[in-house]
Every structure is written in structure tokens, then in C-alpha cells.
Amino acid sequence: MVIAIDGPAGSGKSTIAKKLAENLDFTYINSGRLYRAITLGCLRANIDTKNSEKVIEFAKNIDISYEKDTVWLGDEEVSALLHTDEIDRLSSPLSAIVPVRYIVNDIIRSLAKDKNIVVEGRDMTTVVFPDAEYRFYLDASADSRAKRRFDQGVSSLTLEEIKTAILERDEIDKNKIEGSLKIADGVKYFDTSDLTIFEVYDKLKEKIY
Ligand code: DC
């Protein structure tokens, strides 16, 4: 079974997807982490993430593994390095490079093969798993998403700067040639702005059980 969840940054989808996967004993796949890991790999290899040709070449040959929400580049576990302000900023335009999306989608499909999964991202309900048994779209206002990120205490930006960065990423994510963030027909839509994580979890669970 596939449970697919899409939504913008800060909508709560990672927390919810992870919690659902744990409780259902499903495999959790966070597709954003793959884009982030490719971004980190490019930075380390001194590849300008705006140089599509170089990024594509790099992504084709990348030695990336993903298991249980943990990402490795080669032998190095890089999960803890993927949520910096720089990678937030650079992974969005990198993920707009269409061949990179195909590479990531292939990785996700092979991770999902013959498994029960909860998978989340921007195009899981539309491109990668349009026939998923359950499809959800989690949304929230830019203000509440910025506040959530600010409260995590991992960003060096001010609340207002975080909001601006989130809106910039939304703009890129919604206007991609391929895999753009959109509310697909038939998905179950929830605005999580004024809900706690527990309330969101209960709402999704109600639809699944
Ligand atoms: O979900 P996230 O913020 O960790 O994702 C990082 C970036 O990758 C984000 O800018 C959007 C992009 N992304 C995407 O284009 N498609 C996905 N399925 C997941 C993430």
C-alpha cells in the first residue's frame, strides 16, 4: 500500500508521514531528502547548483543510499547536514532540473518496490504515485510555516527572513515544468495552520483506518 502526502515546506508533512509510517509499520520515504543530498553532494564537489549540465552529470553518477529516513553519500551518513539554510535555498532550484527529477523518482520507486510505504514531497500524489491508495495534501499559511521553522531553532534567519525564503521556495516549487507542487484532483486536503501535529495526525488516521 502507498500513502502519499504532498505539501509546501513547513506544512507538517514530514512529521505526520513519519509518525504514520511508525504506527502502521510502513517504510517512510522523505523525497525532499534526496534532493537535499544531491545539493550537498554538488556543494562538496564544487559544482554550481545552477549549472544544470554539471548537476545532471553529477546526479547520474551519485552514490546515494537511503534507509529509514537516513541518507548516505558514499560511506558517509549525511542526514544531519541536510537542513541548513543554504541547502533549503539551493535544493529548490536544483529540484526544478527535470532530469534530476527523473533520477530521484527512479530512486524512490525502487525504494518503494514491494513495500508498504508512506512517502512525502511535492509530486508524490501527482507524478510518482498518482494511483496511491491514499493521497493527502497538507497546507498551511506562510506565517504559520515560517513560525514552525523559526521555532525549530535551526535557522540563523529572522522570522521575517524565513517567511520570505519560504515564499520564494513556494514560487519555484509551484512553477516547475515537471513535478510542480499542486493540489491534485481527488486528494484529501487539510489546512494545518491552526492544528497541532496530533490533530493533523488524527485527521489523516481517520481517513485511513
Ligand atoms: O521537502 P523538503 O523541503 O525537504 O524538500 C527540499 C526541496 O526539494 C524543496 O525545495 C522542494 C524539492 N522537492 C521536490 O521538488 N519534489 C519533491 N518530491 C520533494 C522535494
Q: Termini distance?
A: 13 Å
Q: Determine the mean pLDDT.
A: 95
Class by alpha and beta content: alpha/beta
Q: Report the major sheet.
A: 5 strands, parallel
β content, as a range?
Answer: 15-25%
Helical element count?
Answer: 9
- What characteristic shape results from the CA principal axes? globular
Show unreliable segments. none
Rg computed from alpha carbons, rounded to a whole number of angstroms: 16 Å
Q: How helical, in percent, are the residues? A: 40-55%
Strands, total number: 8
Order of secondary-structure elements:
EHEHHEEEHHEHEHHEH
Bound molecules: 2'-deoxycytidine-5'-monophosphate
Characterization of the model:
The two termini are 13 Å apart. It contains nine helices and eight strands. The protein has a five-stranded parallel beta sheet, with helices on both faces. The protein has a three-stranded antiparallel beta sheet with strand order 3-4-5, with helices on one face. The chain has helices spanning 13-24, 31-44, 52-60, 85-94, 98-112, 124-128, 142-152, 159-174, 197-208, and strands spanning 2-6, 27-30, 64-67, 70-73, 76-77, 117-121, 134-139, 188-191. A hairpin with a 2-residue loop joins strand 4 and strand 5. With 209 residues, the protein is of the alpha/beta class. 50% of the residues lie in helices and 16% in strands. 2'-deoxycytidine-5'-monophosphate (DC) is lined by residues 9, 31-32, 35-36, 91-92, 95, 121-124, 169, 173, 179.
